[in-house]
UniProtKB/TrEMBL annotation:
Its EC number is 5.2.1.8. Residues 38-51, 204-221 have a biased composition (Low complexity). PROSITE patterns: FKBP_PPIASE (PS50059), TAT (PS51318). It catalyses: [protein]-peptidylproline (omega=180) = [protein]-peptidylproline (omega=0). Pfam families: FKBP_C. One of its GO terms (molecular function) is peptidyl-prolyl cis-trans isomerase activity. This is peptidylprolyl isomerase. It comes from the Bacteria.
Amino acid sequence: MSRPGPTDPKGPHLIRRRTLLTTALAATAAIGLAACTDDASEGSGASDAGGASDGGGGDPLAGVTVSEDLGAEPTVEFTAPLEVSAAAAEIVVPGDGETIAEGDTIIWRDLYVDASTGKTLQSWWQGAPAGGVQVTAEGIGQAAFDVFTTMAVGSRFVMAGWQQSADGQAYSLLQVADVDRIVSPLRAEGEPAEPSGALPSVTLADDGAPALDAPPEGEAPTSTEREDLIVGTGDTTRAGDYLTMHYTGWKWSDGSQFDSSWERGAPFSFVQGEGRVIQGWDENLLDLPVGSQVMLVIPAAEAYGEDPDAHELGGETLVFVIDVLDAAHTEA
């Protein structure tokens, strides 16, 4: 889901710019979703995705057919241009995994099709990043929430809605996605690492949320330093991953906290290596086993620059403690 940019003091302080096409249509305020039905067809053929809409304008999915072979890239057939005058959704293949619950963060493999032309704009099966969303009514809307909390892992669904690209162009879209998993656990788990003693020490709350034991001391590093706090046992992060994590950030100058996904109750996700977050994050979260916890100390040059007038964190060296919760790889 797109988040506020770094100039918005109410939003996370990591995002450099908005990049919306790679995110879930379910996260748009306009989306309205169909109720899931028990009689959704199963098998290796194709089914008509005839989902209900949120009222007004008819059902844009009535003439859309989506393939059901979960072992292959979905095919989406319809007569273009397809008018999307109301948001809608339908489960194409019901999953047989765990049922999604309120607050779950789910990971999916998806593709986007331009409803006006029938052209595939991006696809995980063709090398685009994976995606996902946290399932809360506030974050995705009540209609979307009502559907996702009856959907199971392993489902394939199709949605019709609207989205805006990074260059501001608006699209009417179809999104087809296969729900791969629920992110769990929501904290680092692994072997404690031996701290160097050169960087601030950390205490963890019962839920895993970190706190600095004391404000940082001494001269701040002049280049980003990474220290392992917990070494996980999961798959290793790599370039192009859709990463999901919890984090808290503090200023080196006084130890004051300026941001925390723990306090929002929502893990943070982004595609690694595409310039969507500050440089210190983009370049220093590779080759980490999922389940790890690391500290990053990032100088201003690799965060928000040296000018405090250009950004509220300009000129500040930043300290982050990051729990790597999930790393969804590209098809490549």
